[in-house]
UniProtKB/TrEMBL annotation:
Domain of life: Bacteria
InterPro entries, sorted: Hexapep, LbH_gamma_CA-like, Transf_Hexapept/Carb_Anhydrase, Trimer_LpxA-like_sf
PANTHER family found in the cross-reference section: DYNACTIN SUBUNIT P25, PROTEIN YRDA
Organism: Colwellia maritima
Name of the molecule in the record: Gamma carbonic anhydrase family protein
Length: 179
């Protein structure tokens, strides 16, 4: 597949799953894998040039988000790939850099998640929060602040919303694909 917004880096080209929506204004470069039903919204920049980016099924990456990785080095032989799980909602204008996100996560608008951070399953990260390098956020909690702090356990309704948010974006991207 050749497209101005899907670009090769060296010999590596993005790999797409079934039913993906990638807005024409977004750019995906290099070693990036999208599983099924992923949506990439306007002005997303994803560079899998010096390491890999993997985005799990039914995940949505919203407008203006930047996705990048950490290169391999003698101090960090594997670098830090960017790994995003399934059913994740990444809000507008986020920055995810060489971190790992589990499944069913909501990353609030403008949040920054740094190199080596690990976000377990079923987590809310509040808008504008900063997750420092190598920080682990435990499953089942709301985190907010700069630097991020654990605030409280998630309510059942919030846990349900994590999955519902992914479903909402699947329906929206299907509307876009049908046009």
């Amino acid at each position: 597949m050749t497209s101005p917004n899907l670009r090769k880096y060296n010999d590596t080209f993005p790999i797409l799953g079934n039913g993906n929506y990638i807005d024409i204004s977004s750019v995906l470069v290099g070693d990036i894998t999208l599983e099924d039903d992923v949506s990439i919204w306007p002005l997303v920049a994803a560079r899998g040039d010096v390491n890999t980016i993997t985005i799990g099924a039914r995940t949505n990456v919203q407008d203006g988000t930047v996705l990048h990785v950490t290169r391999r080095s003698t101090q960090n032989p594997n670098g830090n790939p960017l790994i995003i799980g399934a059913d994740v909602t990444i809000g507008h204008k986020c920055m995810l850099h060489g971190c790992t996100l589990g499944d069913r996560i909501l990353v609030g608008m403008g949040a920054i998640i740094m190199d080596g951070a690990i976000i377990e399953n079923d987590v809310f990260i509040g808008a504008g929060s900063l997750v420092p390098p190598n920080k682990t956020l435990l499953s089942g909690y709301l985190y907010v602040g700069n630097p991020v702090k654990q605030v409280r356990k998630l309510k059942d309704s919030e846990l349900h919303f994590l999955k519902q948010s992914a479903i909402n974006y699947i329906n929206l991207k299907n509307d876009y694909l049908a046009q």
